[in-house]
Prior knowledge:
Layout: H1 3-14, H2 19-29, E1 48-51, E2 56-59, E3 73-74, H3 82-86, H4 99-102
Antiparallel strand pairs: 1-2, 2-3
Amino acid sequence: MSIQIKRNMLFCLLGEVPGCKLERDILMNSHRMDILPVCDSNGWYHPKQCSYEMEQCWCVDKLTGAQLPGTKQPILSFTKDCYALQGILRFGFDAKCLPERCRTL
């Protein structure tokens, strides 16, 4: 089972706990500080994620943290507008994972 499927299942099972906050909490409790995602103030994934070790940034789905295809670029030349890309994702707008949507993730 992929990490992405596990994230979606955990989020849907736990309801109101945003995916990024949940993932950060799990990783911090397992002492995996090297791969912590960046969360926004509400606990969702920040649309732009970077790895300074890999010297790359990429855009992610704010809800699931899944990397958006074709967005990974070197940090110093990163030009993607990750916020603008959120509007063309799964629901056509910035949406929370409501119970009826969890079944489709």
